[in-house]
Design brief:
about 75% helix; mainly alpha; about 0% strand
Amino acid sequence: MLTHPDALPDEDQLPMKIAVAHCPELEALAGHIRSFGQMLTRREGHLTQEWIAAVRADDLPGLHSFANGLERDLAAVVAGLSTPWNSGVVEGHVNRIQMLKRQMFGRAGFQLLRKRVLLA
């Protein structure tokens, strides 16, 4: 479901088509996943409200809870889906520092952590 249909290996395309053809809920789910993926890759954040309305029109409780989460901070979601900037580099550094902290838990103080972060 999460892989673009054109990127699926040939042996997986036919079973996916058969499963989607036999289950209307699965077909609706696949459509919503594809449209959300397009919003992500094309930076079409302005379509978020329309996507949420389309999800609510179908009886898919899992997507309803996801849509509710999106609506809680809709302005941030629209900005995140519209702008080319991201915090990936910063998140990577934070993740690395947290890993170092976990490795050293209970062993040393701040000075050693500081040296490991600076030398890593």
